[in-house]
TrEMBL record:
InterPro entries: HIF_prolyl_hydroxylases, Oxoglu/Fe-dep_dioxygenase_dom, Pro_4_hyd_alph, Pro_4_hyd_alph_FE2OG_OXY
Species of the source: Pseudoalteromonas qingdaonensis
Swiss-Prot/TrEMBL keywords: Dioxygenase, Iron, Metal-binding, Oxidoreductase, Vitamin C
Residue intervals of the Fe2OG dioxygenase domain: 95-194
Cofactor(s) listed in the protein's UniProt record: L-ascorbate
The keyword Amino-acid biosynthesis is assigned to this record: no
Name assigned to this protein: 2OG-Fe(II) oxygenase
């Protein structure tokens, strides 16, 4: 999909419903290169932490995936970041959200790994405005992303991870979870942030 069409669909769907789910969002070559990049660095992934730096904890009750922050050292990472930068500028032009940067990591869920219901941001406490999830492979079973309706226990969407699918949603509005993976599941989770700082500390630090 060309980026103009992609961005139009993200803008429309986020505007209308607060989230967008777009298949074949990036060219298959780039998706494959990102997948290869993630796999090549597998030994560098580490158990994901939850909470802010001062209170960061490993909580394997809540999430089991392993993550690796982008280093920008590979061409595929830089190409992905360039698309997200263009999306950031487009979103800012249309929604005046004042997004000032984007951070992302690879995530790897092995069979049995999950991420229980959570918000990526809490009203007034975080600077994460928009969440992005981009899937790098297509497990045939398990690992669905479940997005809940705002202030409700009802499911809004159940997304089967599929290589090339991009999901974007408003971080403060949508509770979501990752159901237990049954096969290896690779993705890139990212956040557009606004420039909040709490007690002079940019939040959230890595
Ligand atoms: O991988 C997904 O589908 C969502 C991951 C997620 O919710 C997160 O990393 O915060
Ligand atoms: Fe999340």
């Amino acid at each position: 999909m060309n980026t103009e069409l992609l961005f139009d669909r993200v803008l429309d769907d986020v505007h209308q419903q607060g989230y967008a789910i777009i298949e074949q969002a990036l060219c298959p070559d780039l998706t494959a290169q990102l997948y290869a990049t993630a796999q090549a660095q597998l030994s560098a992934f580490s158990p994901a932490a939850i909470g802010r730096q001062d209170e960061q904890q490993l909580n394997s009750e809540v999430r089991k995936d392993k993550t690796l922050w982008f280093s920008g050292s590979c061409a595929a990472e830089r190409d992905y970041l360039a698309v997200m930068e263009a999306l950031r500028l487009t979103v800012n032009r249309h929604f005046y959200l004042g997004l000032f940067d984007y951070e992302c990591h690879f995530a790897y869920y092995q069979a049995g790994d999950f991420y229980k219901k959570h918000y990526d941001a809490f009203k007034g406490r975080s600077n994460r405005v928009l969440t992005t999830v981009f899937y790098l492979n297509t497990p045939t079973q398990g690992g669905e992303l479940v997005i809940y309706k705002p202030r409700s226990k009802e499911v809004a969407e159940r997304v089967a991870p599929k290589a090339g699918t991009l999901v974007v949603f408003e971080s403060e509005r949508f509770m979501h979870e990752v159901l237990p993976a049954q096969q290896p599941r690779f993705s890139i989770a990212g956040w557009f942030r606004k420039n909040n700082s709490i007690a002079g500390v940019i939040d959230p630090p890595r």
